[in-house]
Design a protein that fits this description.
alpha+beta, PH-domain like, 30 helices, 9 strands, flat, phagocytosis, SH3-binding, ELMO_ARM, SH3 domain binding, ARM-type_fold
């Protein structure tokens, strides 16, 4: 348009995130995007830099408000930071004269500017950090300022050991617990985020101390009452934090799990002896005084054999295997002390059975502890995206030990139901593992409910389930049935394709994940009803399914070139920082469109969403659906369709080859002539 001083102007998207158009992103502009002419980022940065220093309160507030929204744009942020704009923000916070709305805009702008990673968090002054901490520690501060301050501290903690020490010293755990009891869900979430950041950045010893303190303060009950059972539904981010809290808590057992028993440790030997004494108290006391050392030793060995140790003369040998190490001994001692009647009944019942059929308590306990460690992933690092926590974990003190107490009694019950002998030990433990995993998958809300359900799932129920699964497999293996399967496949695959495209039309909420942390930024993507265009755009937290018109960005399906998944995606290559990426890699996919360097990058919220989206995009690209979900859906639909088709053949065995067709009869005189009947 031949405007004079053209460098003072820039184009900017008119809706959505109002990003400036630059040389690097100009080729991302889609047909139909509405752009507006505005002042250039450097002019705007200069104007706001002056505006936030203004003595006029209204000018200053408006400038800070505009700064908070523009700082999301990387081009503007670069210009503002290069003018030493952060220094002005520091001074507004450090002087502490401004409060309320002005301070909220300042902190929001600071958070957005730091998000771009141009400046290290370690450059922050002590005065600034103390000020942010004071907003968290003061009661008479607006909730929005407390939220922003908690968020700033959460970002700060993982970046350096020094900042972790400053924050953990200044913001007490008690203060964070107060926030967890708040009615404001956002405050709860930000406080939980900071608590998790502190736990993950702490050393093992510090983490243990923090968890012990939190246990003393009944954090479990706070979470159970105020978060899990609050009137608000649980968001994805809070579910992730609860998963991390559960994981960190269970991983405190890792130390004992990896420690073998030391036969020379008096403390450990005393624990071992206490098991024997609790079970055979009266007998031991009587015999202790009257028998010689040799006789007493053989009596002890006999009692340890009754307890189910393989090496009865030196039971410590059984506990040398790590994992489960000393954790197994801790569990046995907990069971004997907290439920002495159940413990005595287990031991005495089995020691009075015939030799072959007794259930070995110690051997079962060691193996069961190992099984529980594997099921609960003890000793494994936290996933960065998982949200699978057990509500019953927060409903019970000493969760792991209490779970063990229920399951060891289940072992005895299953052993009797199976009429097992020593040779069947591995089979019994396999059944017990199945009983536990099947029950846990139902997500019981309390240990009582878990106990009821796991006991109801007895050996005969497991056999029925196994048999149903086996029959289901066998009946689908006959040759005619396999041929029928192949015939049905194309029709059912088409049905799955339709379902995938319908899911894409409904759309999904995706989360942006940066290299530093799980971010709060969300965006939504959906397919147009005519399957011609993908619409996407940023949305606010809490928006369920935004209308298609509110999503400003779009990609025509015709312009899509290919689908990339996992390691091939550009956004996983950028931040391949090892451990963090294992779970992100499983959920990452990208669409390459137009020219090859343009990609739309996704990180699916769950594996299920990943499968549906990658399948749907493959259908749009005219390729095969390749996800594991396609196979399971196809199997389910095939099995249902086959069952319906084979209903009339109930209890009839299907031969592998079709029976021969008989020869035609020698005469056809048996046909009935209707014409005579009518006359």
């Amino acid at each position: 348009w031949s405007l004079p001083n053209s460098e003072r102007y820039a184009l900017q998207y008119a809706d959505g995130r109002q990003t400036y158009i630059t040389e690097t992103n100009r080729r991302d502009i889609k047909n139909g995007s509405i752009l507006r002419l505005t002042t250039s980022p450097d002019q705007e940065a200069e104007r706001l830099y002056v505006g936030i220093q203004s003595k006029n309160v209204d000018v200053k507030t408006d400038s800070l408000k505009k700064l908070a929204s523009l700082s999301q744009d990387i081009t503007f942020a670069q210009e503002f930071i290069s003018r030493n704009g952060l220094k002005q923000i520091y001074s507004i916070v450090e002087e502490g004269n401004d409060t309320g709305e002005m301070l909220a805009h300042t902190l929001k702008a600071f958070t957005e500017l730091m998000e771009h990673d141009f400046v290290s968090w370690e450059n922050l002054s002590t005065v600034f950090i103390k000020k942010i901490v004071s907003y968290v520690n003061m009661n008479a501060v607006d909730a929005s300022i407390q939220q922003l301050s908690l968020s700033i501290l959460e970002n700060m903690v993982p970046t350096s050991r020094l900042l972790f020490e400053v924050v953990s010293k200044e913001v007490t755990l008690d203060r964070l617990l107060t926030y967890l009891q708040a009615t404001n869900a956002q405050l709860q979430l930000k406080a939980m985020a900071l608590l998790i950041a502190l736990l993950l950045s702490a050393t093992d010893a510090e983490r243990r101390d923090m968890m012990d303190y939190l246990r003393e303060k009944n954090i479990r009950q706070f979470i159970h009452k105020n978060i899990i059972h609050s009137s608000e539904p649980l968001g994805d981010e809070m579910a992730h934090y609860l998963y991390v809290m559960q994981s960190v808590s269970l991983n405190l057992c890792e130390h004992r799990m990896k420690l073998s028993m030391d036969p020379y440790s008096q403390e450990q030997r005393d624990l071992l002896q206490s098991l024997r004494q609790t079970a055979f108290e009266s007998e031991s006391e009587v015999s202790a005084g009257t028998f010689s050392t040799e006789r007493r030793r053989s009596l002890c060995a006999k009692e340890f054999r009754k307890l189910g140790f393989l090496n009865n003369s030196n039971p410590a040998e059984d506990l040398r295997r790590a994992p489960p190490g000393l954790l197994a001994l801790d569990n046995m001692v907990y069971f004997s002390r907290n439920t002495p009647s159940a413990y005595s009944r287990f031991i005495l019942e089995n020691s009075s059975r015939e030799d072959k059929h007794e259930c070995p308590f110690a051997r079962s306990s060691i193996q069961l502890t190992l099984i529980l460690c594997e099921i609960l992933h003890i000793g494994e690092p936290c996933s960065e995206t998982a949200q699978a926590f057990y509500p019953m974990f927060f409903g019970q003190d000493h969760f792991f030990e209490e779970l063990f107490c229920i399951c060891i009694q289940l072992v005895n019950k299953t052993w009797k139901e199976m009429r097992a002998t020593q040779e069947d030990f591995d089979k019994v433990m396999q059944v017990v593992r199945e009983q536990i995993t099947r029950t846990l998958s139902l997500k019981p809300t309390s240990l009582e409910l878990f106990k009821t359900r796991v006991n109801a799932l007895n050996y005969s129920e497991i056999l029925k389930l196994r048999q149903t699964e086996r029959l289901h497999q066998e009946e689908t293996l006959a040759v005619p049935v396999l041929e029928l399967r192949e015939k049905l496949k194309p029709e059912l695959l088409e049905l799955i394709q339709q379902q995938r495209l319908l899911h894409l039309c409904e759309g999904t909420l995706f989360r942006k994940i940066s290299s530093r942390r799980r971010q709060d930024k969300l965006w939504y993507c959906r397919l147009s009803p005519n399957h011609k265009v993908l619409h996407y755009g940023d949305v606010e937290e809490g928006v369920q399914s935004p209308p298609i018109e509110s999503l400003p960005e779009k990609i025509p399906v015709a312009d899509m070139k290919m689908l990339l998944v996992g390691k091939e995606c550009p956004h996983t290559k950028e931040k391949s920082s090892g451990k963090q990426n294992k779970d992100v890699l499983e959920l990452a996919f990208s669409i390459v469109h137009d020219v090859e360097e343009y990609c739309l990058n996704f990180i699916a919220p769950t594996r299920y969403e990943f499968c549906l989206w990658t399948d749907g995009l493959n259908v749009l690209l005219g390729k095969e659906m390749t996800s594991e979900r396609t196979q399971t859906d196809l199997d389910v639909l095939l099995s249902m369709e086959l069952k319906l088709r084979l209903l009339d053949l109930e209890n009839i065995s299907i031969p592998d080859e079709a029976p021969p067709i008989p020869k035609p009869p020698s005469n056809l005189n048996f046909c009935y002539d209707f014409s005579h009947a009518e006359q």
